[in-house]
Structures are given as C-alpha cells and as structure tokens.
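Appendix C. Worked example: 1-acylglycerol-3-phosphate O-acyltransferase
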Amino acid sequence: MERLATVAVSMPCGMIFCLTGILVNIIQAACFLIIWPVSKNTYRRIVGAVTDILLLHLTFLVDWWAGLEVRIHADLETLEVIGKEKALVMPNHTCDADVLMMWLLAERFNCLRGALMVMKKSSKYLPIYGWANWFNGAVFLDRNWAKDEGKLKSSFQELKDFPISFWLTIFVEGTRMTPDKLLAAQEFAISKGFPVPRNVLIPRTKGFVSAVQYMRSFVPAVYDVTVAVPKGHPIPSVKGFLRKQPSVVHFHIKRYAMNELPQSDEGIAQWCKDRFVAKDAMLDKFRANGTFDGKESRDLRIPPKKSLIAVILLTCIDSIGAILLIRRFSLLSNWKGISSLAFAVAFDAILMYTFIEYTKLPEQGKVQARNGQVVKLIH
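Step 2, the predicted output written as structure tokens:
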C-alpha cells in the first residue's frame, strides 16, 4: 500500500515528466539521426541543452518538491574553478538517489548539461530517463571488465573534443552502499589485511585507472567528492523525495590536478584506494561533529530558481498542449478517446512505479543500519 500511495502522490509530477521526457527523447533521436553524422559537436550542444531541461525537472523534485538542504564544503581554490573546467568526479555511494545527488551538485555550479555519468547497463533501458542519458553521452557498463574495458576506452576518447565543460562521474565502489555490502567489504578487508572500512566500500579501481590514463591529456582535474547526511536526518531516497520528505546533505569537494596523480596503473589504483581510506576517516569525524572540519562552507538552503522556472513553464506548456489535444480530438466524448487517456495515466503510473522499484535498495539480511548510523563490523 505504501508503494501505491507513493505512486499516487507522484502522478502529477510524473505526468509532466513523461510528457516532457517523450518530447526530449524525440528531439534527441532526431538529432542523432540527422545531426550526429554531420557534426558531433553540434549534436552534443543541442542534445545537452534539451537533456538539461529534463534534468532540471529531476533537480526540481529534490530541491523544491522535497526541500532538500545542501551544504557545500571546499577550499577557495576549488570553489574558484569548479564548474568551469572538465573534470573526473569521484564520489562515494550514500543512498539510492546518488545519481540525483550528483546532478543536484552539478546544477549548483552551472554544469548540469555537461554532467555525464558512468552507469550500469540496465539503466539504459529505462524509458525516458535511460534513453535521455544514452543520447547525452552517458557510459553504460556490464560490470564485467572483459566486456567493459574496450567500451570505457572508446567512450573516454569520444570525450576528447567535447565542446563544453563536463563532469564525468564514476562511482568507483561499483555498487550502492548497504549494510550487507559494507559487512562483506569489511570481511574482505580483514582477509586481505587492508584497512577495514566503516563508512565506504572498497573501490574497484580498474575503471578509474582507465579513466585517468585516457583522459589526463584533456581533463585537468579530479574532484574527490565525499557525501554525508547528518545524524537525525533521513537518508535521501527517490521514494522519500516523491513523498516530500525533507533532509540535509553535505558535499565535501577537494580538487586534485590530474598531472599530480601517479603515472603508473598501480600508482593510480593505490591513490584511489588511499582517497577512500581518507574518506572513511573524514566520515567518522562527520558522524561525530555533524559537519566537515576546516573547510570553506556554502549553505545553499535556497536552491537555484532555474529548475523552478523550468518546471512552471513545462507545466503550463504541457497542460495547454494536453487540453488542446483533448479538445481537438474530442477525447472525452467517446470511448476510444477515454481509453487513450486511461492508457496515458496507466503508463505514467507504471513508469513511476518502475523508477521507484528500480532505485530502491535491496532487502537486507545479515545486518541492519539504524537511524542512518554506520554499521559496525560483526565478529
């Protein structure tokens, strides 16, 4: 019943998302067929602009609908350049809405249309959302290195002449954080003699190493992003956003110049592992203090108005278009028309249900986290 209630609450927002998304997908497909063979850069600029419209709808959901508060911690050097350069972004997994969190961060620095993701292959087949990301240049992985190695290398090379600043986000932990997976990571670390994590998973470094080696000639920086939620606040989730559940999220951002990273594959892999050990210690302090220490902080409780304006305009356009369509074809005056409208509503409900089910974390069997606190190692 709770899931059905969430779907019902999300229906109005979902209908605007569906109508806008279908139009965006049509424009993207037309550009792919007509413009891509002639000019890749022109295609990227146009598709980036229309994808931005769809992503603004999602950031509106987080910012204005759910009322998420955002706090950003970074040094002045990082704040001066972030959003103005191409970068490889390396966040930790926190919740089932991590991708939305990174789009939210990108919007804060006017980099939303260039916010590209490395995503699991199955998400490519999600209607509207997955298709839009595929057209916009997201990299989809099988999570099998034998299959993914060549795909990653070709995808990274495709970005060499990307016409605008972009962030390529790669979640190097390889899977979302859950108590069961953290326990497995702790047991693996003990068996190998590695530092035992308490707040993060052990990174899978092959994809990150490949990204650094193939992009270091044209991407000047790596942004090490640590995401945390204070005690007493719910962990953000897609279902929570749809149900207007407010929360607070902190982003700690540290910029590393790409030319300062090690040259060898082994050195890059160890650098990545060291950063996650440091993340783990930083998150321990965050749990104790409720904030990140010693950094410039921006308290962005008032979200950017761009997404609000975009959704208001989209709602007006979609509503007027739907009314004109209904009147033009007299959809309320015959059973065929009523059936078509019922199908549209059903499609909206099924799509929202699919998104909720797809993003939710798996059921936990071994351990449970309480109130968002770190799971302790079970002996």
